[in-house]
Amino acid sequence: MFRSPTTKTLVPLDVTNRVVMTFDLFDQLPSEVTRVGKFLRKILPFAFRSHRQELGLEGILLHDAVAILALTNPELFETSDMAGDVETTGELTTGASVFDRRQVREWRRNIDVATEVDVAGVKDGILRGLMAAAQAE
Fold first, then answer.
1. Cβ distance 126 to 21 under 8 Å?
2. Helix (H, G, I), strand (E, B) or coil at 55
3. What is the DSSP letter of 31?
4. Between the CA of residue 41 and those of 28, 31, 91, what are the distances in Å?
5. CA gap 46, 60 in Å, rounded
6. Is 51 helix (H, G, I), strand (E, B) or coil?
7. Which helix (H) or strand (E) holds 44?
8. At residue 135, what are phi and psi to the nearest 5 degrees?
9. Residue 19's closest CA among 53, 75, 70, 95?
């Protein structure tokens, strides 16, 4: 992916992890009389429970939704043009994304990487998307 000549943006976990949807999300969901609202109220308790048990979080992470908003609402993110690749030979780092951030780079820049996120704006975007889905029923 990194070596592909196409334009690409990476939204890494250290950025998506900043957007934590807390339990008050339930108060902002579409009405439970909608299919979307009913579905979310059915699945979200399990998501909250597993995030609490497995990650120790009092909220849930919606990595994919955050990444989609980077595509649809790029103004909510700051990105940097970087030179990156995936480590394939390291004993401890196999599969890790590696970026050449030296003053004098040896690699050419090949990917935009999200470095900052407007957390409130992204949360609002996720909720607006859920509301729009409920209205489209």
1. yes
2. helix
3. P
4. 11, 10, 43
5. 10
6. helix
7. helix 35-50
8. -75, -25
9. 70
How many CA atoms lie less than 13 Å away from 135 in the CB half-sphere?
6
pLDDT in tens, 83-94: 888 889 888 889
Q: Which residues pair with 116 in a beta bridge?
A: 78
Q: Are 65 and 126 in contact (CB under 8 A)?
A: yes
Q: How many Cα atoms within 13 Å fall on the side-chain side of residue 75? A: 2
**Partners of 84 in beta bridges:** 99
Q: How far apart are CA 23 and CA 52, in angstroms?
A: 11
Nearest to 65 by CA among 19, 31, 8: 19
- Assign 80 to helix, strand or coil: strand
C-alpha span between 135 and 14 (Å, rounded)? 33
pLDDT in tens, 13-45: 999 999 999 999 999 999 999 999 999 999 999
pLDDT per position as a tens digit, 42-79: 999 999 999 999 999 999 999 999 999 999 999 999 99
Characterize the bridge pairing of strands 20-21 and 9-10.
unpaired
| Model confidence, pTM | 0.86
